[in-house]
Amino acid sequence: MRSGHVQVALVGSELLLKNSDPILHTVHARLGGETLFNVGLPKWREVKKRLDHAGVVRVNCDVLHTWMSAAIIVTNSPHFALSDAHGTFSIEGLPTGVYDMDVWHERFGNRYQKVRVHDQGTVTVEVVYSPEQHR
Fold this sequence. Notes:
Layout: E1 6-10, E2 14-18, E3 25-31, E4 34-41, E5 46-50, E6 55-60, E7 69-75, E8 97-105, E9 109-117
Parallel strand pairs: 1-7
Antiparallel strand pairs: 2-5, 3-4, 3-6, 6-7, 8-9
């Protein structure tokens, strides 16, 4: 299992691209079918890119490094979390109300559901993906 290759960022965030390897890499970022940027990164170069659009940004290295990939979930909402290895997450300080929750999984895609947050206590949410989804 790869770790650390999924991030969450707010729209308008700045992404610092750099390469600590002695060999050339590229950072090819796509939102859907659209290329947002495709930057060659020799070791000495650092580039900043702004994340201006919400969605799932897929990042790959096009220099024959097919195993190198990442995903950046760019959101307009300040209320978000990244789950741990067990799928557990926590979002603190949500005001009382009903929320549309959008959950994204790298292999299984999105799940949407309503969540009601009360004045006090903890809300437990269960998100279920069926086995048929990964065929």
